[in-house]
Amino acid sequence: MQLKDAKILAIDDDADVLTALRLLLKPFVAEIATEKNPGNLISLISTKKFDVVILDMNFNGLVNTGNEGIFWLNKIKNIVPDTDVILITAYGDIDLAIRSLKEGASDFIVKPWQNQKVIESIREMVQVKRKNGSKSAKPRFEGTKIIGESEEIQQVFSKIEKVAPTDANILILGENGTGKDLVAKAIHENSNRKNKPFVKVDVGALTSSLFESELFGYKKGAFTDAREDRKGRFEAANGGTLFLDEIGNISLRQQARLLTVLQNRHITPLGSNENIPVDIRLICATNLDILELSDESKFRKDLVYRINTVDLIIPPLRERGTDITLLTHHFLELYSEKYNKGPFKLDPGFLKKLKEHQFPGNVRELQFVIERAVIMADTNLLRGTDLSFSPIESRLQSEEIHDMRLETVEKNTILTVIDKNKGNISKSAKELGITRAALYRRLDKYDL
Question: Which of 54, 183, 330, 441 is the most exposed place for a label (fewest CB within 10 A)?
């Protein structure tokens, strides 16, 4: 999308402000619609798609909330969460405008505004839309649907596109619950082997006695309960993709056996002397990081090289910004249909509480939290009080306090500096040594 294709809606009870915005933007955008009465906002955004809404923060007391702008901002985000909102504010309401960024606004402009800043702000939002497109609903690859629009998950999409058509062995890294199995499935479905089998094995759950029989098969009479010949998972996946989940949990002896098969490209079933050639594309996954896999007391380095032609790191949910909102709506729709409830509306406090949670269990935890909220809901309006997190999740979240990763340190530093400067973005950006635009991008990245 380009700026000339953008559709803008401006809401302000001052006719002069609306006229000024219409004259300013008309030469640059496809459409600029204006409305004096915010009470008509819901019908306007429900019947027509706008890329950006420019919204005044103060009206003539039509809504008794103490802050009309925040009220209408939340209405917009509940109905069309992917619409960018720019708030118009007086200089004295800067602190309120900072709060609005946390509530979901994309930017704010101060009266009297600078024309070029308004145009550049809209242009930047449109460029982001063009970059992301509709990837959250329709990823660039076919098959398995992975929901997300954040820059972090888009990088994963880009790698999937590049590696899927090859036969390279892939190692998928990520915390539990991030969706490593979905990524493995997406790679298979976009490979040249997509019409062949996709076989998944949780090798971390296999005992030493089961490891070889499950992976390589056995002949009748090979052991007490072997009453008939059985193919192993390698042979079952022949021509297709073999996905070994939790590869980091297998013993050194199992690693040595696996390495031999990958080097020789054939298997020998238990109870047999026959070598059976296998042609598989190997995908492995683990919740260990690459440094832990480099510890030769736990994992063979030669096996790491064999399974890790390309690695894909799946980001945790807490680093995926607005993807939490997208996934929440997805799971709400899923479980509303499953339990024949809803449709649900979300109180702003519901999403706020979700965004404040660290989700140590990642997407899987969010899924269970939303399912629990749908099951226990008494009304079709979900509030923050309808959310509950298990003691296990809460304990894991408390352990994240000492998270010293670069992204976490940067996020906490930004929060500290903004709080110190009482929400003043210009002062905060100067203290951090970056531009205001760069600070806004980071606020958006970390969904602050």
Answer: 441
